[in-house]
Amino acid sequence: MTRARSLLWSPVLAVLLVLGIGGTALGSGHVANPPLTASGSAADSAAAITGTAADTPGCGKNPTLRSGNHTIQSGGKSRSFILRIPDGYDPNHPYRLVFGFHWLGATSTDVDTGRTVETGTWAYYGLQRLANNSTIFVAPQGLNNGWANTGGEDITFVDDMIRLLDAELCIDTTQRFALGFSYGAAMSYSLACSRATVFRAVAVQNGGQLSGCSGGNQPIAYLGVHGIRDTVLNISGGRTMRDRFVRNNGCTPQNAPEPAQGSLTHRVTTYSGCAEGYPVAWAAFDEGHIAAPQDGAPGDSGSRTWLPQEVWKFFTQFETSEPGPDPDPDPEPEPEPSTCEVTASVNAWNTGLTANLTLTNTGTAPVDGWSLAFTLPGGQNIVSGWNADYSPTSGRVTARSTSHNATIAPGASVRIGFQATHTGDTAAPASYALNGTACDSA
């Protein structure tokens, strides 16, 4: 991102400094938007907490929307966005929905391609490659390449996009997420304030209160990320934004630890005492106003940044399960062991890789509490993971279910994954076994 940023960062920095200084006054130009009527209900909120998928009217329909650029009318203006539908889209499966908002002076294409940091690898802030076709992505385009949200028009734009997507696509209404960097973070924060019952969680990176905060009194799962040496939008503003949701979510206040200047490291703090289903996490890193920080080196890196894994782990902790067939009310004392299938995909670079595993219950009985054993190729060592607990970190590894994905209905799947280092062998794991029973590999 260094070369791309140098072409536009001076004027962008000047504008953001003015907005950052006047952030509170800027809010006077924003008005409260009426909430969505077709979704974001109390029932959806309850479903989100209990981990039950809630479908949209688009489920079961042959969609007319396709991946690519789209234009709609919103608030009397033509507004555009880029839509990415997963390969092999299943109209009967409710999908996670992620909005990625661009920074000031950027475009929806920058988010969609990841080209300002690393094309493809950093698409949708690095989340698209981790999603492995499990998620619908949207990159909206801001007016004048920003998110001033004058009169609440950008919130209305999001409402209108959601209505269209809900009508055409099969989306889990308890699995809507928003993230962005800089001005895109400000827009995500504004959604956290005014659409806390529509979105499940937000990730706010190096943001400021630039797009308003209508409401701002309801809980929402919140991940704040900020560079301790940010001279464009100071970290003190990021802490203030975070602390609003520490209060809203009933978390225990604390001064979250942050890395020392010059360490080129990051520290992640998960707050304690939060209301069930409403966590708050804070990731501080030793760098400035950058979008893809890495440990041990300055500047952006699409392949070495730790941030996409942290955001993905935060978002996917809320993964819901589709209702499956009711288990036999009078099961046999010793039911047949469940059979299983594992599909793996690996994305590798230099000395690192990420692996995404899809575990499918191909048996006829639910799996209630699971452990998936597999063998890593020599030289691979897991450094972090999501949607499961991993032990040990090399050799024969066992991934154990967490509270939100412990049950796999017949025909249903769970998606887990990890980041690892390697010494040259980047092959996928092998010899899978679910609760001691060998699995097929697809």
Automatic annotation (TrEMBL):
Pfam families: CBM_2 (PF00553). Keywords: Carbohydrate metabolism, Hydrolase, Polysaccharide degradation, Secreted, Signal, Xylan degradation. It is found in: Secreted. GO terms for biological process: xylan catabolic process. PROSITE patterns: CBM2. Residues 64-75 have a biased composition (Polar residues). One of its GO terms (molecular function) is polysaccharide binding. InterPro entries: AB_hydrolase_fold, CBD2, CBM2/CBM3_carb-bd_dom_sf, CBM2_carb-bd_dom_sf, FaeB/C/D. Residues 325-335 have a biased composition (Acidic residues). The keyword Secreted applies. Residues 333-442 form the CBM2 domain. One of its GO terms (cellular component) is extracellular region. Belongs to the faeC family. This is Cellulose-binding protein. It comes from Streptomyces carminius.
